[in-house]
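Appendix B. Extra example for self-study. Work through it before the problem class; the solution is given directly after the inputs so you can check yourself.
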Amino acid sequence: MAGFDIDRVALLARLALTEDERRIFGAQLETIVAYVDRIAGLETAELDATLHGHAEGAPLRADTPTPGLPLEAVLANAPARVDDEIRMPRVVE
Amino acid sequence: MDDIRHMTLAQALAGLRAKRFSSVELTQALLGAMEASQRDIHAFVTIDAEGALAQAAEADRRRAAGEEAPLLGAPIAMKDNMNVAGQPCTASSRILEGYVAPYDATVSARLRAAGAVFLGRTNMDEFALGSTTQTSAFGPTENPVARGCIPGGSSGGSAAAVGGGLALAALGTDTGGSIRQPASHCGIVGLKPTYGRVSRYGVVACASSLDQVGPMTKTVEDAALLMDVIAGHDPLDATTLAAPAPRLAGCWEGMDPARPLAGMTLGLPKEYFGDGLDPEVRALTEAAAKRAEALGAALREVSLPHAGFGIPTYYICMTAEVSANLARFDGVRYGLRVPREEVLGQYLATRAQGFGAETKRRILLGTFVLSSGYYDAYYNRAQKVRTLIRRDFEAAFAGCDLLLAPVTPEPAWPLGVYQDDPIRNYLSDVLTVGANLAGCCAIAIPAGATAAGKPVGLQLLGPALGEATLLRAAHALEPR
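Solution. Structure tokens for the complete assembly:
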């Protein structure tokens, strides 16, 4: 089991951690990763992966236009808006 | 009128049809009990008294006009991860506090079309990540039967509502046991349908290859009544199965009342009766097996050789999917936003403030097992081990109709215990995750109680689409 780099994983997960969280989660996750690592001893090279609970896959439905939700109903949950748009911090320089 | 809230769903529907009481009277009785129990049991995150009474009055008006529908006027509680148009839906998380569903989940729409009354939203572990309902951002739920103890989870609010006589029935979701385990701890029936049998459209996703919606009820008959409304293909959920959903209510009729299980073989997986099993749980499960034998079933020992790898496999697959599914909670379109000048800082701050500790822990683990350099060793390998687990179940079902097992290794434990020991909590799912990994159907029914009065459930597991056989056996074995 490789070392669990809490800072690298937290950034990938888009989670800011406090110093206490870094310490506690870091130690707990080391233990949890060591526990789940017990599957490492199983021979799996020849096995197919099971991706879903059934083998039917997920067939697409016909691409038929249908009405969407009313704009106002959707925007009612937006944390910040300008007219009919959601306000966000600048993402391009 | 207080006793009407302790009726089964079937009894209440019969009473409504016979006009012995109205839906408004029934709903009022339940709302009164719900509100009175909030301080102690806290089964609900939201109680929608005004909405429920309006729906009940409408149901009474429809019935008076001669209309009929399968659940007309029946009050139902919904786990707080299913959209019901116009009601809050928080998944018991601060990050969704204030969110109001703009549409119905398919299960909500089907219940609504069947005439159900939506009482409110039941408490749950945050984003269904837990087995105790203690990870809810809005405080824990207490077991209404084993007071001072956890109700189980993650559908602990639904289980407490039904077990405590606060709802006739409820819906829950089961990703690794989250319907069956709380049902067991609260002395009720909980059905995890076959993967793909019930639509998840409009349900807050936890782990999409594992999640199923199912009924939590007082009886097997009530579970069948709800399944007949919610099950079946949904064009809005591509993972629902195309096969028609057979009618389940009454599927046990015509069986020999003296030997209803004649011709049925029940397998006892030896790995589910190992050393870690609580002695009282073992004794009650073995007593249920003897009862099944007396009712005509043949018993045989079976093996699920990879059962010991179920928890590691589950906690890799599930957390990987959780980390991906919960990436959508970023403070952009809905829910909590912690404003920052630049977008990455806003993501980091919003998610840090919006998620609780267990959710963060699972997001971190899931992100790790999917990350570059570790994907093959963990996520890819776990999916292959999942194939071994699925094959174990297929081999077991080749020699028997159903499996009979405990639901949980131990009865409900006191609130607050094990909270700092994640692996200890994860191990409480050891007997339930297999059905999710393999896509089976499974049900928990009451098996009795410990000397201290804690409910203990019995688990029956069936192959995919084996709900009818599962419910026939469960109906024969449930307490009368």
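Self-check: Chain B touches chain A through 78 residues (CB under 8 Å). If your reasoning did not lead you there, revisit section 3.
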